[in-house]
Amino acid sequence: SSGEAPEFDYLFKLLMIGDSGVGKSSLLLSFTSDAFEELSPTIGSSMIDLLRVGLESRLIGLRIVVIGANVGSVDCSTNGVAIRISYVMYNPTYPQKLVYGVDFKVKHVTLGGKKLKLAIWDTAGQERFRTLTSSYYRGAQGIIMVYDVTRRDTFTNLSDIWAKEIDLYSTNQDCIKMLVGNKVDKESERVVSKKEGIGFAREYGCLFIECSAKTRVNVEQCFEELVLKILETPS
Ligand code: GDP
């Protein structure tokens, strides 16, 4: 990228949620890698330590700290080392340590005659600990709920856990949801039928698609259908 602020008509924040291992990062990579604009690195532990040194004083007493704008990133310099971060989560169980990062990628697309900047957030692993909170959901126009068609638990967890969490934390009433059954390339191992996916989507009032991050089948459609629906929805 040129480093200059790109022109766009709308900026949308999209979230990827779902159990660990369902393919969230792979889908995001598959969608963004061809026309990749920016990468905010998953925050590694060494960066976290650097950050801690520089920013500790601002973190004390806070459980979750968002540095920078909701969908922006911030460049900081600690001990002369320049680093870029998008978001930092403070683990209340280990108050002396910052342990998780949230990663997001940006992609520019033109859809429905509009130039769009998509900031797509991925959870960088902390979904395992079920510690995503309102900061992650805040301001999102779209939520991509991913399960693995070869693992039933990842499907039932969407209704048992993730849907409840969305209802609890997502403050945007107009937020559009897309249910995604991933890994359809593993057809012989499939345990969740397409019909069940359609059924849950109808019940929950969301869009639905099946795809494969591996073969890229329906990956673009997944993001594009969601964004087109967001564009159609008056806010
Ligand atoms: P995340 O934890 O939800 O972000 O899942 P990852 O993107 O890290 O994927 C977990 C594992 O599933 C990795 O080994 C991926 O290579 C694999 N995977 C992801 N998507 C697909 C897919 O569509 N098909 C197949 N066969 N494997 C996939």
From TrEMBL:
<dbReference type="InterPro" id="IPR027417">
    <property type="entry name" value="P-loop_NTPase"/>
</dbReference>
<protein>
    <recommendedName>
        <fullName>Ras-related protein Rab-18</fullName>
    </recommendedName>
</protein>
<keyword id="KW-0547">Nucleotide-binding</keyword>
<dbReference type="Pfam" id="PF00071">
    <property type="entry name" value="Ras"/>
</dbReference>
<dbReference type="InterPro" id="IPR005225">
    <property type="entry name" value="Small_GTP-bd"/>
</dbReference>
<dbReference type="GO" id="GO:0003924">
    <property type="term" value="F:GTPase activity"/>
</dbReference>
<dbReference type="InterPro" id="IPR001806">
    <property type="entry name" value="Small_GTPase"/>
</dbReference>
<comment type="similarity">
    <text>Belongs to the small GTPase superfamily. Rab family.</text>
</comment>
<keyword id="KW-0342">GTP-binding</keyword>
<dbReference type="GO" id="GO:0005525">
    <property type="term" value="F:GTP binding"/>
</dbReference>
<dbReference type="GO" id="GO:0012505">
    <property type="term" value="C:endomembrane system"/>
</dbReference>
<dbReference type="InterPro" id="IPR050227">
    <property type="entry name" value="Rab"/>
</dbReference>
